[in-house]
Amino acid sequence: MGMGASGQCFSEDTLGVAERLLSGSDEGRGVRNNAALCRISVPEKEPFSGLRHMKFKVFGALGLALVLAACSNGKTDTGNSTGAGAATQEAGPTPGSEADLVANVGDRIFYELNVSQLSEEARATLDKQVAWLQKYPQVSVQIAGNCDDRGTEEYNIALGQRRANAARDYLVAKGVSASRITTISYGKDRPTADGDDESSWAQNRNAITSVR
Predict the structure, then answer these.
(1) Which of 56, 70, 137, 200 could potentially form a cystine with 195 if both were Cys, beta carbons 3.0 to 4.6 Å apart?
(2) How many other CB atoms are found less than 10 A from the CB of residue 140?
(3) Which of 87, 88, 66, 69 lies closest to 77 in space, CA to CA?
């Protein structure tokens, strides 16, 4: 006797048919292994005729094969579904979006104290923005100039505007249409970093490009 997937024992003859149907598969090996657990003798209540006995063996073996095949297919489908979901979750930002600009280009440049001239590092970032804007000609942007919190409100508003204008003029000189760019100055009113130390001040002296 052998044990089926649900714990039911099958006759040696039935297991022989099932093993032949599933020869070489994991299910076939499982049938042979489970057979050892059911080596018991169960007397039949009545003898089967030759034809009835053969039908019983064939139907029993086919039923066992179908159950095992269904279980195998169910596991495979679940794996495929999981893989598709994982691929969807790994998708990056929408091309041409604000998130795309921040992640793949860089949305801000930085300035020295009381300076509105562009550094070499700032020009390198703006060059990347030029290439990105040329790739997405439908996108318009705004450049906001910002300062650290030292100095008067009036002075910082004017300085922030010069910083925004410097970034805009560079983009336009590189071929970006001026009609796609607006500028604004927030002075010291929108700091990127809180704190009264050089590290915070350096982060707050910037011009930030955002998608409109």
Answers:
(1) 200
(2) 14
(3) 69
pTM attached to this predicted model = 0.60
Alpha-carbon gap, residue 168 to 210, rounded angstroms: 12
Give the pLDDT means over successive 10-residue stretches in the chain (212 positions): 49 50 50 46 48 56 61 52 52 95 98 98 98 98 98 98 98 98 98 95 98 96
Residue written as token pair 């139907």: 59
| Alpha helix segments (H runs only) across 4-152 | 12-21, 26-35, 50-89, 98-104, 120-135
How far out from the chain centre does Cα 206 lie?
Answer: 31
* CATH code 3.30.1330.60 for 98-211: yes
Per-domain residue ranges of the chain: 2-89, 98-211
User: Which residues touch 206 (CB under 8 Å, ≥6 apart)?
Assistant: 108, 109, 110, 111, 145, 146, 163, 192
> Side chain identity at 107, as an amino acid letter?
D
